[in-house]
């Protein structure tokens, strides 16, 4: 009877032992970082190794990969590695590396969205760039420059509305459609999609600094949400199989769903879409030599050739104003002049600071009521 | 009398209908979602539209074009093989210690060995990532194996320990009395009876390691992705049924492996998965 | 041979044998938990992790009413999933134990393991096709006229239970098989020889002798459920929130101090519940004796 595999008391003990571990912290002490062994930053006749962080997404790594091949062929002393990961996993790793081994960053530079760029400002993750020293920055407008000079934009995605064209015959025209009774139980959103709260606030006298009107609306209309999704395939599936008819989504992602054959389309609401620039950032902890190469790479990526490739593969508005988009892209709703003029800019520093509080509100006001 | 009880304890050669029915229902439940995955792998629709508008093999062609999966599968196989081996070896030694001896601290050790079961894997992953960075261990293949080994230990200790308590130490004692050293006594008297449980523990550990993604995703360096991690990353990029094709290939390959093992080693090879039946008297 | 070496031979092996397991455990697992505890005591303000030591995170955790709701949901999900798993796994293990054909047994074991061969997102696709609003089950029910509007199974509590139990089954069937195999055949034979029927033998002999294993398996499944985040996230549609899901989002959102506190909260939760079950088991065990 008593000789079963693990006894119940053992399992209890296991939990107790693990729970007691914080106490060890006091006497444990830190493990000292070991001296660098075989440091990648060679210099002793070896190649300089640069790691570029790239978005994990449909064709988002195409440009960095093609660029790396081209750059390495012209600079034999530089080796470029591309590190593709999602923002949710990639940035925490970069930050953890910065905090534990500050002189050995996980990546030397990379592509980061607006929110992560602002988060990085708070964490001191980025190096400042001297815009005057970047020859190609001259054709990059102010909307793609950052007040603190941490990084520079290469393109901009946008967030609007994606809907099921089979189940909704007249295309949605306003952000308010998302919280209208017409779509009760037929809305899907990515988890923690504060953008719809922001738009609800904005349309009802609030702002990024005063989200209260938005929270009130979504608290009352949480029943509109059929499901919150946490992965792109799931998003596409619920939008195409009739589970949900409408969502707020990236332009690039929505068009990708459409290209796969899903019965969906992207529209820009009358109030405008939310602009989400993508920034090239160089990372603190780079050696002077690495930083010099990174700045050179940033400058070359901003050139019309590479900036255009980025815009086309990522389906984004190019930062370099001398890039002209091919016709099939320029005709899309997101790129029409009247819609570009309406793009809504967001103060991402506020977003990064409020992120924790907003997630808590999302939990208690939205999630708790769906 | 004996024959009667033989029959009624279910030890006859006949499979009772109830047995088959219960098992059939349970297995149907296990297989149900996988049937759709397998069918979807032949779905002509790029986003897995259901019912499939047509059937094609293009996701298998696409799978063959992805060079990342093969290397990731190799990494996973090596990591799973080593981690499971390490976990079974270390777990067996630990199981012998805690089941065959009485000493102070034994229960604490037993508890500690089971603790990795309880902490969320994401949290272990983040903690381990920071730890490996500090120790200059990040990105080494050993780091991945070590993490998996620790996550597998509870399962190995559990299964092997469970078998050990059923094997009376008298045989080992007898071998010692006949002059064998402790290692030889264990190897000649206990190990043969433990064989099946060791196989079971190894298989379970291998499968768990091969499937582990929650903690691994934090610890891997860009050039050492495992198969589940690369599947996870593929899903962030594309939504097409290529992963359904990959899953189908994995299921098919495993099935073929099981069939081959059965054909060569005979059914007794899987008897160990029964928890060492036959030694229960 | 001196006294000292004699003592060494007699005493050391028992400790030495644990070392191969304890050393990696101490280095990797305990090390990770210590790093985590360190993070849990760091301040987190305005979206960044500060330096110094604080108990702010504990307060943040305890004062958030939503956390307590999630805690409740987590416990409920853990209790229900573990219960359903054991109820399904036990007869399956028993049937598997009684299965005479080696080939059939191998096939069954292969099928039991097959869920582990697919990624959780791929499995979620299958569940959606089966359980979704326009899924196979709802369409069938509608065609035979049993329902007018689709049953909401997907993205609700039932879907999470169905999918969780599915992945828990291999982990439950295994230990139960071992426990059932431990029931001495002589006990069964004796019961039959004394004229007991099948049903009586099961409830009077087999089940009591495996009861502790059932409780243990339940506890194991409970622990595995409450530390899973992907399945509740993918099939719960935001309605089923579990603590480990919050840990995952907090890791991504750089609120590591909170993620650490929540991880330890999960530990304490398991500790309390497993302890409570042990206590209840001991009390009822005393009564039945």
Automatic annotation (TrEMBL), chain A:
Signal peptide start-end: 1-25
Keywords: Signal
Pfam families documented for this protein: SBP_bac_6 (PF13343)
Protein name as annotated: Extracellular solute-binding protein
Species assigned in the record: Phytohabitans maris
Automatic annotation (TrEMBL), chain C:
Membrane topology: Multi-pass membrane protein
Family matches, as InterPro entries: MetI-like, MetI-like_sf
Top-level taxonomic group: Bacteria
High-level lineage: Bacteria, Bacillati, Actinomycetota, Actinomycetes, Micromonosporales
SUPFAM superfamilies reported for this sequence: MetI-like
Record's keyword terms, sorted: Cell membrane, Membrane, Transmembrane, Transmembrane helix, Transport
Presence of keyword Cell membrane: yes
CDD domains registered for this protein in UniProt: TM_PBP2
Chief place where the protein resides: membrane
Cellular localization per UniProt: Cell membrane
UniProt keyword annotation of Membrane present: yes
Family recorded in the similarity comment: Belongs to the binding-protein-dependent transport system permease family. CysTW subfamily.
ABC transmembrane type-1 domain span: 71-277
Transmembrane intervals: 15-37, 75-96, 103-125, 157-180, 214-236, 256-281
Protein name per Swiss-Prot or TrEMBL: ABC transporter permease
